[in-house]
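Field reference: sequence -> structure
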Amino acid sequence: MQKVKEIVSSILKDHAIDTVYFVGCGGSLVGFFPAKYFLSCEATKLKVGYINANEFVHATPKEIGPNAVVILASQRGNTPETVKACQVAREKGAATVGLTFQVPSPLSEAAEYVILYEFGDGAVVENQKSSYGFKLAVELLNEIEGYAEYDKLLDGLKKMDGIVKKACKEIVPYAIKYAWEFKDDSVIYTMGSGASWGSAHQESICIFMEMQWINSSVIHSGEYFHGPFEITDKNTAFLMMKSTGRTRALDDRALTFMKKFNDRCMILDGMDYGMGELGDVSEYLDPCFHTNVVRVFNNLLADVRNHPLSVRRYMWKFDY
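Structure field:
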């Protein structure tokens, strides 16, 4: 957290920040959704944006300027759209923070401030990409407006590594069941609400579509009854990232209906694995739980389908 504090302190010395934008592509953008959701819920003055890097380049919001901080992420630091977005933000006078797993890289050279995050099986949860984006959001809010739950939230983030490691062991039998259940499905829908909608989105586009070539779409639990529930039948495959917070009621409503017509829904509920001990800040930390624990299922699904998560049809093989 010290690195984040130093960056935020330095930014606020040179900028009267009133706008925070999270920018990236694919999983790197979705990893910022918890931070975006947090600020949308808690900030009373700060404006927050969340946008695809290439859209940022071609349709740069007018509020990007000296009073904005733009936080970007790219795994290898070489995503062309994200690097260009960083350059555009700096040209507009905004403060820029680049999150990457690789230094040096084009993004680390383009950004004013750089955070090197941990990635992989041994990564500590609070040192992962999405956690750093979240910590930047929390620190900015606390310094600019004040945040009463600041200590409680950061303490909860520190506890996440233990909760996740324990859950990854306990969930194995359940994950095996659904890996075999879903291995032959050609379509799997993901669902979520609140901060966890981002986790459901990431699972849909990055795991099912990108890494397993399974057709998928993310459904917000609150939107389920406004169109998507018509595809529900006994054979439809769902994966629900269930909230432990205020939007849990939306998830429960969808699940109550689904259970009448469908029994093929895998539910990842942090309440079953210790998230309840974090109190009312747990909803903001749900994505840390979901994106880490679902990896157990993802690895098993790849194994039973004989389709490694590293296999690609087009990515890194063609110009696009």
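Note: The domain at 2-147 is CATH 3.40.50.10490 (Rossmann fold).
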